[in-house]
Structure of FCGR2 protein:
Amino acid sequence: GWCPLSPTGAQTTQLLVEPPWRPAALWDRVTLTCQGSGTPGATTWYKDGQRWGQQGRDRLSVTRSGTYRCDRPGTRRSPPVRVLDDPLVLQVPAWALLEGDTVTLRCRG
């Protein structure tokens, strides 16, 4: 994946969401993938601000609701991804949107 450099030159870390809708829903069997520079397999996961789960794996299957982030040595922590446990979730696409784009919203449950 394409990974932009931040102005300071520190690599940013991206958190990919599958399926690619946000906010993610727990019943959607969400998988998070940590992408960025740094050492593959040296990923640290965070849930609600605390270190979470097995360190090292680049992919995480989400089984609990919360706010997830990841990082690797030498990279910044990724933007947060929320996973909700609500029975009905209004979702927008997780890919980048520009002003003027037509957006399809999903109301799912």
